[in-house]
Design goal:
By secondary structure, the chain is an alpha/beta fold. The protein has helices at residues 25-36, 52-61, 78-82, 88-93, 112-121, 124-128, 141-153, 168-175, 185-189, 232-239, 248-254, 256-262, 273-282; strands spanning 12-17, 41-46, 68-71, 85-86, 98-102, 105-109, 133-137, 157-162, 178-181, 194-197, 220-223, 244-245. It contains 13 helices and twelve strands. Helix 5 (112-121) crosses helix 7 and helix 5 packs across helix 11. The chain binds 2'-monophosphoadenosine-5'-diphosphate.
């Protein structure tokens, strides 16, 4: 007998990671539950790498008592091996960030790419530009979701640059895109409509090695990092007169498919400035 409901009989979901205290997902989902008047609760749980197998087994057999979960660092890749069914996106990106428990099976999906593309589509400047060439900086796990999202958005010409060129080979093979070293960025930027920072550079106030004087007019600048203040990359870009967008909307939008499945609603939860301000106020 599965127990994926709380004793009060409302659905409970959550997020696992290690550490987990910085996750904004509980604030996001509990805010939506309250705003939409839906019964349910969203929790967080610190699961150490050594305890992952046990956790996923208990999620499947109902002992955890959750209808599903989000998975964050460092478990997104290992979660692939514990799911019974994987979406095409999870397989292609090579990571799971959303799990739904259905009929005793763990259905693993990756919605990071959707969060990325929906965030861009919510931006009027983005909707107005041609979806031709995009340049992505970074070759980590986050970059894989970004590249998949760009391909779904219809970008035919995607170039990924990275400091460590050895990390680019898998991306080139898996996604059929062009790759080059970070130092070669100026060579590729001329015809681009969009430049995305998918590295962690900027989280601690660092600056990306981008020469803004070489950027083409009208290029859009997007950083997947978010916070109360824009990253150096985006503030400088703004000073140079470029349109810029941060990554908070990516976090918000990646949560929507899980929310709708776990808490059984067809309605999209609200995404507005109130939510943005609330989440930033909860950031530790
Ligand atoms: P995630 O899974 O969040 O993408 P990651 O796998 O650690 O995290 O990848 C971090 C990305 O930031 C990588 O592309 C990394 O470049 P390297 O592959 O060369 O390490 C990039 N990055 C981090 N610090 C950097 C720095 N100081 N200069 C340039 N790139 C950096």
């Amino acid at each position: 007998m599965q127990n994926t409901k709380s004793p009060d009989n409302f659905p409970v979901a959550g997020v696992i990671g290690h550490p987990i205290t910085h996750s904004l997902s509980p604030a996001l989902h509990n805010h939506w539950l309250k705003k939409m008047g839906l019964p349910g609760r969203y929790e967080s749980r610190d699961v150490a790498p050594a305890d992952c197998a046990r956790f996923f087994a208990d999620l499947r057999n109902g002992k955890v008592g959750w209808v599903g979960c989000n998975v964050t660092l460092p478990h997104k890749i290992v979660a692939l091996d514990h799911c019974d069914v994987l979406s095409d996106a999870a397989k292609k990106i090579g990571a799971v960030n959303t799990i739904i428990v259905r009929n005793g099976k763990l259905h693993g999906d990756n919605t990071d790419w959707l969060g990325f593309s929906e965030n861009l589509l919510s931006w009027a400047a983005f909707r107005a530009v041609p979806k031709n060439r995009a340049v992505v900086i970074g070759a980590g796990g986050a970059a894989r979701g970004v590249i998949y999202g760009l391909q779904q958005l219809g970008f035919g010409d995607i170039i990924v640059v990275n400091r460590t060129v050895e990390k680019l080979q898998d991306l080139r093979d898996d996604f059929g895109i062009a790759v080059d070293s970070l130092a070669s960025l100026p060579k590729h930027i001329g015809a681009a409509n969009l430049l995305v920072n998918a590295t962690s550079l900027g989280l601690k106030g660092e600056m990306l090695p981008v020469d803004f004087t070489t950027l083409p007019r009208g290029i859009l600048l997007h950083d997947i990092i978010y916070g109360a203040h824009l990253t150096h990359f985006l503030t400088t870009g703004k000073e140079f007169g470029f349109a810029v967008k941060d990554g908070l909307g990516m976090l918000i939008h990646q949560g929507i498919p899980g929310f709708k499945a776990w808490f059984k609603t067809d309605k999209n939860p609200p995404v507005d400035d109130d939510l943005r301000h609330y989440l930033l106020s909860q950031k530790k």
